[in-house]
């Protein structure tokens, strides 16, 4: 479930310079500093393989996972065991090596119990080699140096962890929400107080994570706790005023208008539910919750003095065009509620022609067209929505729409080769090799020789980059 407040529109006459600066800093930290992590990991892998440590650790690791799954009822360990059995033999050593190097809990277990599995000479060789890899490579990875470690909370790390991320998807998702929420809070508080409260929320978010996760969790990185603080501040700024929220649940999305503070327990409940419902998740739900409550508390405690907000911020102006759009949009939604799908489709189509920048309209048209997958409109809106998702770098939505179309209408009205090619390129960019393989299979079925050859060449290059020799050879044979 996603809930985003959308009461304020961005005023480019007063650009949110600090929010934009924070976004640039986060991107630069990831692109310039954290980009070195991959090299360190690769060097660690090479050193690990050179010392032939996998032969020693692999049997111990399987025993360790079974112990965690059976004795401690660790669901994540059971998932890893299941995944381990499904890894192709050609990729098993490479994947298992990465798992072992990035599992500090197993490393600690092996240090404590290595004598039960290895002879003294083997134990000494393993201990020396592993300590060397740890100090020269793994301890120098950005998350290990400046991430927030639950068992070693340092003041500097409480700030620095907020500017690092675990991957491009993590970064881009956070920066999107930072922009959506930050510009409004910056306008309300002014740049200096906005920056200070943003960092304070991140500090409390980190402390909540460390306190609740205990002393054996992985380092925390990411701006999501600070951004959750912005959500808490935004909600508290409006208090009991009814404001608009965009929400997305499963495949359904819409707008609602509700008292702002009503969203606070709803959002907090969502984080708590996900924390208990998805054990072992890499998402720091408790950090989100800590930031959310910190942001709301700051406004609640200091809004009459230090964080006093200009009344003009709360008086949201409505221009005539927006008022007309909302009126006609509400009428279209009312048609949907009465199950007048044909009439609703005509209303949304007219709105989409007049407001091509309101992508929510295309989403409605797509959902309506999906009710009759054999009709040409479903193909048309699918292609439009895929193009929009690609332009906005929403890869997960692009894949979801593409997959859904294959199931409902792929054989009735096949997508063009270029559409499958777009999914293939996007999947490779996102590192989703499974989707890339499926997209290439669909592309092959179209018989478009030129695009197939181009895709083959690209796949050879990408598989070589990832050192997936077997897959690269498969596509080389196709080219031959």
Protein model, in words:
The chain is mainly α. It folds into three domains: 2-10 and 164-314, no CATH class; 36-144, no CATH class; 320-479, Serine Threonine Protein Phosphatase 5, Tetratricopeptide repeat (Alpha Horseshoe). The chain is 71% helix and 4% strand. It is built from 24 helices and three strands. Strands 1-2-3 form a three-stranded antiparallel β-sheet, with helices on one face. The longest helix has 23 residues, at 191-213.
Determine the strand fraction and express it as a percent band: under 5%
Briefly note the structural class of the backbone.
Answer: mainly alpha
What order do the SSEs take from the amino end to the carboxyl end, as H and E?
A: EHHHHHHHHHHHHEEHHHHHHHHHHHH
User: How would you sum up the global shape?
Assistant: globular
Number of helices: 24
Per DSSP E runs of 2 or more residues, the count of β-strands stands at 3
Distance between the termini: 47 Å
Oligomer: single chain
What number of structural domains do the residues give? Answer: 3
InterPro entries: Peptidase_S54_rhomboid_dom, Rhomboid-like_sf, Rhomboid_protease_S54
GO molecular function: serine-type endopeptidase activity
Subcellular location: Membrane
Domain Peptidase S54 rhomboid: 157-303
